[in-house]
Inverse folding.
């Protein structure tokens, strides 16, 4: 009965003339908004006071909270970038990302801070004890499939103007094949090659994909930047068989 959270909840119920027996989903969302605003206001103020030269990315939303509008609407005023751990989707959902970043967060940038796929072939080929039993990422047959997933997922992230980056989880394997390298620091070459193909062209790809997304046309040339092979990007796009046509 002395818990501050409980006391605040009781006060909120009294202020809104509610009891425990007549709470609705709308009430749940309203009280969650109060909690979210309070938490991010306190944390953001502390970070900006003591570390003003860095961006505040929040707490990496994931799971069911990403289905609650108040998660994004209430936290956005206090965040520099919205961060989401984006699992259980082969393809980023453009409408969902736009709702999070534009409709609810009033045009905030967003970063995907966790996502990955595990390769079944690592269970036999890796020198480590890989069993792929842990983790939320997809399980695919080979390292080449992991690379294809990386290309497909990132190319579709680049179609959205609010997405400013992504972070693959994780750098090194442990008991599941999540890593770019195994526990001996040996890279999974097929995955690394796909990452390099995207990452060395990321700004030219973004320019091209955003142009085609808004115009509905294929352009024959990509403008801007010192990215590798920018002028031949449409040809490079055709080589990425996992890109949506």
């Amino acid at each position: 009965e002395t818990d501050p959270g409980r006391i605040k909840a009781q006060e909120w119920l009294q202020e809104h003339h509610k009891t425990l027996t007549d709470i609705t989903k709308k009430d749940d969302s309203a009280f969650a908004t109060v909690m979210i605003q309070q938490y991010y206001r306190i944390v953001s103020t502390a970070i900006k006071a003591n570390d003003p030269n860095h961006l505040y990315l929040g707490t990496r939303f994931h799971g069911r909270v990403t289905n609650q509008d108040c998660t994004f609407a209430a936290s956005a005023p206090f965040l520099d970038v919205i961060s989401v751990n984006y699992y259980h989707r082969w393809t980023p959902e453009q409408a969902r990302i736009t709702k999070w970043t534009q409709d609810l967060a009033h045009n905030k940038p967003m970063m995907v801070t966790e996502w990955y796929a595990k390769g079944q072939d690592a269970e036999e080929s890796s020198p480590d004890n890989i069993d792929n039993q842990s983790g939320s990422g997809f399980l695919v047959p080979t390292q080449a499939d992991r690379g294809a997933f990386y290309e497909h997922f990132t190319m579709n992230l680049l179609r959205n103007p609010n997405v400013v980056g992504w972070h693959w989880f994780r750098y090194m394997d442990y008991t599941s094949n999540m890593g770019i390298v195994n526990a001996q620091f040996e890279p999974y070459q097929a995955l690394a090659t796909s990452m390099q193909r995207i990452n060395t062209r990321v700004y030219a790809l973004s320019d091209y994909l955003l142009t085609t997304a808004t115009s509905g046309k294929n352009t024959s040339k990509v403008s801007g930047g010192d990215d590798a092979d920018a002028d031949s990007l449409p040809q490079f796009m055709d080589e990425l068989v996992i890109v949506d046509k």
Notes: The longest strand covers residues 110-114. The mean pLDDT is 90.
